[in-house]
Amino acid sequence: MDITSITIVGNGLAAAQCALMLTTMLPSSVQLNLIRSKDCPDSDLLYGSITSPDAYQHNLQLTVSEPEIMLQSDSSFSFGTRFVDWGENKRDWIQCFHQPFSAEAGVHFHQIIRKHDANLEDYLISAQAAKLGRFAHPPVDKPESALSRAEYGYHFYPTEWAELFFKKLTSKKINIVDTESCSVNLVDNNIESITLANGKQITADLFIDCSGTSSKLLSSISDEFEQQSQIDAVFKLVNVAQTGPSYRQIQGDHTQWQSVTPLQNKNLLLSVKKHAANQSGTGQFTLGRRPKAWINNCVGIGHAAYVIEPLTPAPHMLLSKDILRLAELIPLGKNMLMESKEYNRRYINDVKHAELFQFALYDENQMPASDELTRKLEQFNHRGVLANFDLEPFHDEDWLTLHFGMGRKSQYYDRLADQINTTEMASKLLNMRKGLQHLAQQIPPHHIYLEKFLQYLREKHVNH
Questions:
Q1: If you average pLDDT over residues 8-21, what whole number do you get?
Q2: Which Pfam families match (predicted)?
Q3: Could you give phi then psi for residue 242, rounded to 5 degrees?
Q4: 11 neighbors 36 (Cβ within 8 angstroms)
Q5: Given pLDDT bands bounded at 50, 70 and 90, which one contains residue 287?
Q6: To 5 degrees, how large is the angle CA 15–CA 66–CA 175?
Q7: What is the DSSP string of 227-294?
Q8: Which tens digit of pLDDT belongs to each residue from 171-203?
Q9: How far apart are the first and last CA of the chain?
Q10: Which of 233, 246, 314, 454 is the most exposed, having the fewest neighbouring CB atoms within 10 Å of its CB?
Q11: Rounded to an integer, what distance in angstroms lies between the CA atom of residue 375 and that of residue 297?
């Protein structure tokens, strides 16, 4: 029997984006409800303040364009994150976004960099532009330009984005219900209905838990949660006279760090302090994950299923993956066993591999035990090989930039690099480095580019 109704519970970014996705893809025969319950905790700050480049396409799938994002929120552009005095060794680098690195005579570029004992960051245009606080859209019609190799994401304030995406729902086919509180009614460990504060009950075939860290729906079915650690996290918005650079800045180490994210004439400050797991009386939020995000007729999205530290773009990346995965696996009938099994397989892979990337930002004597991470580090440290696993959310370029930024240096390089004339390659690298530095200086400062871009969008809107 086909499902006829789906109910989402939540009042934050996950609920808004999930609802928008389903309104664009569900047939008119399926009733879609959104219960915005005020007793759901506000954990949106844990989605961080920076997206990956994939956010552009993801937002379009949710019918939200870049002009809408820039005009209706204080978002700005991002070439990545600058880590300053990071960790025990006080590392400083730009964890930038970039398209696949080039190859020379079949040899990976990072192997050539290793042979010539060069600095990878010097050859990444997005890193060079970010260091100068500059930004421009990568040209799509000039593939010969080095800037076309750059990728960009957004700096964003999660509360603003939640409001923007909720606003989009007003013109969609969806039943939105606001309530002070709600409770879950179970029959045979399946959710039968949600009871609102006024006593009214809403039934559905499939329930989607977007209730944040309370996991209001999932926790009524199962209390399984693999706790890793606890954190205190505090956001603060500060007005500034001029929009900041095209990067978010992070300073500290994996136990305690602070970030500054430049928005439009504002800085979003985040302070994070970590505590050991199960340490009594500490930790505003608990980091960890549920072994299953889809149980019976309920699926958890975002913080209802896992909470990951907002150190990288991972939290927003994972939320996007949750929503796309759900869209692909909307059940064909009321027996959801096959859909839930596939959803959970991909869910746990995504979360585990996002965690690996964040753990790789730890000093090696502080890393948690992980066979997969050990394999990655051993292979890279030995001869610069990138060990890949299925469904990794971070790309090879992300991992290479991180490894070089953390000062990891392979013992050996690919011997195929010896077939390339050393003197000629050294001259080519020198010219490439100088060319990128010169190009970066020609790119406008982020705040000037943003001002002109917004002015263009406003004038275009008025003329249309």
A1: 97
A2: Trp_halogenase
A3: -145, 135
A4: yes
A5: very high
A6: 30
A7: EEEEEEEEEEEEE-SS---SSEEEEEETTEEEEEEEETTEEEEEEEEEEETT-TT--SEEEEE-S-SE
A8: 888 999 999 999 999 999 999 999 999 999 999
A9: 47
A10: 454
A11: 37
C-alpha to C-alpha distance for 193 and 209, rounded to whole angstroms: 13
Reply yes or no on whether the pLDDT at 281 is more than 80. no
Predicted model pTM: 0.95
Burial bucket for residue 1 (CB in 10 Å: 0-12, 13-18, 19+): exposed
Render pLDDT for 32-72 as a digit per residue (tens, 0 to 9). Answer: 999 999 988 889 999 999 999 999 999 999 999 999 999 99
Q: What crossing angle do the helices spanning 337-359 and 314-328 adopt, rounded to 10°? A: 160
Residues 350 and 54 sit within 8 Å (Cβ to Cβ): no
pLDDT for 278 equals 63
Rounded to 5°, the CA angle 28-34-36 comes to 165
Please tell me the total number of residues recorded for the chain in this structure. Answer: 464
Domains of the chain from N-terminus onward: 5-415 (3.50.50.60)
**Any residues with CB less than 8 A from the CB of 448 and at least 6 apart, and which?**
none
CA dihedral 404, 409, 415, 417 (to 10 degrees): 30
| pLDDT tens column, 408-457 | 999 999 999 999 999 999 999 999 999 999 999 999 999 999 999 999 99
